[in-house]
Amino acid sequence: MRAVRLEPKLLRMYFHDDKRYRPGELPRRLWVQGLLATTAALVFNPSAALAQTGDKIRINLMLDDASSMLHLPVLLAQHLGYFKAEGLQVDVVEQPFAAVAAAPPAAPVLHVWSAPLLQSLYASRVADPWVSVVQTGRTPQLALGGPRKVLAGIKSLKDLEGKKIGVLELGSQAQLCVDYSVLLAGANPKNINYIALGNPLNAASMLRGGGIDLLCAGDPLVTVLEKKGEFEALRNFRSLKETQRVFSGLVPGNSLLVPLSVAAKNPAACQSLVNGVVRAAKWLRTAGPSDLLGSMLDSTYLTDRAIYLNAVDNMRESYAIDGVLSSEAFATALRVCNTLDPVLAGERKKNTNPYTNEFVLQAKKRFNV
Q: Superfamily for 2-139+251-367?
């Protein structure tokens, strides 16, 4: 686990361009009402309530890769000072989500995750399950593809059997999306050789050197490789249209995920976090090239400003408009998980509070989104 100090200079890279219920069975509507009863007086002036403690609320914002555009809305909230304005002190920490998705946080601190909803649902964490408090991605925000010479031998996704496919981490959203696509094509995902790459630099070198045949990853890496002629998309899960075609509905991408116990005990902090993210989503919707380019940071694998703007454009429609997670999108994600792993379908059904839009709806009112 590596702490990342997100100062303005470091962040510039992103902004280019009478019934009783047992525990765990409380209906989402009643659970959320309980949270909102606690925070009703805080929503429109959270800083006044936080000031009662004399200190800012400290939060560890966990994410797998600080260079990934999948996390852009939450990192924008940090960079633009929106979390600070809400009375939060947010520390960004890099750590793979797959390794901890099924286990409670080890440290007694306030942990939240910027991570794929699909991945959290697939993990079926029974103890202290995850709750999505705001959606940041409307699609998986990934692309599956590789060099043209490799794609020439692929006539259908059945041909992916036996191929070496690079993903940043095993058990990730990228692997789940490929598995589901291959399963629909009538092939067996178990016959795919997944290679854990760890970081984007490894991904690029492995693809170039033949260590992997194909890659499923996000931006800015995909756009960099596309511009260099080293990658063509076989499936573009950044696109709303292609995501709907493959999955028969929109599969949500990243969300801000909070353990149920944390959400229940810290509703004001959750509201403040969501406020910051919703503000950032609103900013991103209207940000022009000059706004984004003014905050660009040098990167070891991305130094071209025009390419970075192109990467933002490739991702723009995949970002959530206002943070609301629709019931239809959630149902699609759940269907994908249960198709891939029907054994744990019953466990997933036990989690009656997998997401809430109540914090988002309050933030939308406050910021006129």
A: Periplasmic binding protein-like II (3.40.190.10)
Q: Which of 103, 85, 78 is nearest to 256 (CA)?
A: 78
Nearest-angstrom CA–CA distance, 236 and 251: 13
Residue 204 to residue 196: CA distance in whole angstroms? 13
> Average model confidence (pLDDT) for the chain?
82
Residue 177 CB partners (closer than 8 Å, separation 6+)? 118, 140, 142, 144, 216, 235, 237, 251
Q: Specify the pairing of strand 193-196 against strand 232-236.
A: unpaired
pLDDT of res. 302: 57
- Distances 275 to 99, 261, 367, 368 between C-alpha atoms, Å: 29, 20, 8, 11
What CA–CA distance (Å, rounded) separates 347 from 355?
16
Predicted confidence at residue 353, as pLDDT, reads: 79
* pTM confidence score: 0.83
Name the DSSP letter for residue 152: T
Question: Above pLDDT 90, what percent of the chain?
Answer: 60
24: left (phi over 0), alpha (psi -120 to 50) or beta: left
Q: What is the residue-wise DSSP string for 75-123?
A: HHHHHTTHHHHTTEEEEEEE--STTTTTS--SSSS-EEEEEEHHHHHHH
Does pLDDT of 258 surpass 90?
A: yes
Sketch the domain layout of the chain as residue ranges. 2-139+251-367, 143-236
Which CATH architecture group holds 143-236?
3-Layer(aba) Sandwich (3.40)
Whole-number pLDDT of residue 51: 32
Q: From CA 355, how far away is CA 272, in angstroms rounded?
A: 17
Band of the pLDDT at 22, cuts 50, 70, 90?
A: very low
- Does residue 185 carry a pLDDT above 80? yes
Report residue 194 as tokens: 């997944």
